[in-house]
Description:
- By secondary structure, the chain is of the alpha/beta class.
- The chain has two domains: about 50-165, Tetrapyrrole methylase, N-terminal domain (Cobalt-precorrin-4 Transmethylase, domain 1, 3-Layer(aba) Sandwich), CATH 3.40.1010; about 170-285, 2-Layer Sandwich (Methyltransferase, Cobalt-precorrin-4 Transmethylase, Domain 2).
- The chain is about 35% helix and about 20% strand.
- It has nine helices and ten strands.
- The strands form two sheets. It has a five-stranded parallel sheet with strand order 3-2-4-1-5, with helices on both faces. A five-stranded mixed sheet has the order 6-7-10-8-9.
- It is elongated.
- Its EC number is 2.1.1.107.
- One of its GO terms (biological process) is methylation.
- Keywords: Methyltransferase, Porphyrin biosynthesis, S-adenosyl-L-methionine, Transferase.
- It comes from Tetraselmis sp. GSL018.
Amino acid sequence: MTQHVNLVLNRSACQVHKSFLQSKFSFCNLRTRGPNIRNTSRVKAEPERGTCWLVGAGPGAPDLLTLRAAKVIAEADVILYDDLGTQDIVEQFSRPQTKRVFVGKRGGRESVSQDSINKLLVESCLEGSKVVRLKGGCPSVFSRITQEMAALQSAGIQVDVVPGVSSVLAAPLSAGFPLTDRDLGKNFIVCSAHQAGAVDWDAACAADTAVFLMGGRAVREIASQMTSRGREPSTPVAVVRSAATPQQTVWFGSLSDIEERTKGERLSPCVVVVGCVVGTAGGGRRL
């Protein structure tokens, strides 16, 4: 009986000793691994990449801004905005703490380069910011959206696009005539007159209505090119400056006299519309 008790006690002692050794070994392992665990906690994580929204501001009047655009602007940490009617929108819809960066371009004036704009967009997003690139009109029309999207996507940044009301559509209506008409304007073409030499003038003349953006310095060239290709000198023309804003000014004329009617005027930013639909302004209807 005594031998049996001793045997049980010896076994119990061995188990206790074994458990002690195991716990001590585990403790030693923890102490060995401890510094490595603490070191990993000191590694600074990279900030989560932000998102960039390419947003159309419309012609510039705040009440023509889309609801989606207003929401995105209100959530932005950084806004890079254009020269064409976006200042009032930024002031009205963005938060006071939002960083605002002016990157407007205007012909004949010192401007921020497109490469610099691309770099600012990418750097701001890599810092984890919600970034809005606010553009006049609609991003889909002559806004260099492809270059900005390419720069952002190559950096692995998510890009969303918010459409806006283009001055192509807003200018004619604001001046009192439609862009199309069942009889007078069954089709239209949109051209950039920023570089008149790059315009497909034959295509412009073939359309019922031709709309020229950035045409402030090209009124004479537009009239000359279109009449030399067969458009009647009496074809109605409208030059709409600052369309759909309180500063809007409209000059009406024809291909033969629009240059004289706008002589000495500051026309930029403007939309030039050529076609018989212009003659319907004010309720008139000239065939």
